[in-house]
Fold:
Amino acid sequence: MDFDLKDYINLATVGPICSAILVLYGAWRKVIRPLTTIIREDINERINRQKNQDQMMIDVAWIIEQMKPNGGSSIKDSLNRVESDLHAISQRQRLYMLDSPQAIFEADSNGECIYANRTYCRWLGKSYNEVLGRGWINSLHESTRNTVVEEWMHAIQDKREFSLEYNLKDEDGKPFMVHCTASPMYDRNKNISGWSGVIVKHDI
Structure:
């Protein structure tokens, strides 16, 4: 008996097959293809993240190597040279300040004295330790003491330059007129870290 495909395939069987194909095609468009894209993007992201981590490890290894002395050619060697130069400059400045013809002082952010050169101490007939902190106030002559203290505290509170003429007194209590200027010093965050001042003695 001859086999006729028409007798086997009819609308009753073709319909469900076509429907199944359409369902699979719709699922592929709506689910499988987007899912494939998501998986591919996730794989690419993982690969890029791993590349970044590998590069970061290379950079860290280079930095670690540079922070070791290497006969003068590493970053560590350069930093050491800069630190040494800054120390030498600071020492020269301190030596100059010690014997400067002007009285030089430094105060902290609260206005208390943390440094005074030899000229300052010699004028007052005081030791270095005697003028530190608030000890300098004892060397202000009574005629202008209150004015100086008030103006100094206002300058500290207002974070502005201090400039004033007033009387100091020597070791015998004798007054002599000076002019003092002090300016705020700033740290790397632009906050006031202290004050640097110069006192000039008036010739009478």
About this structure: The first helix runs from residue 5 to 8. Helices lie at 5-8, 11-66, 75-98, 118-124, 128-131, 145-158.
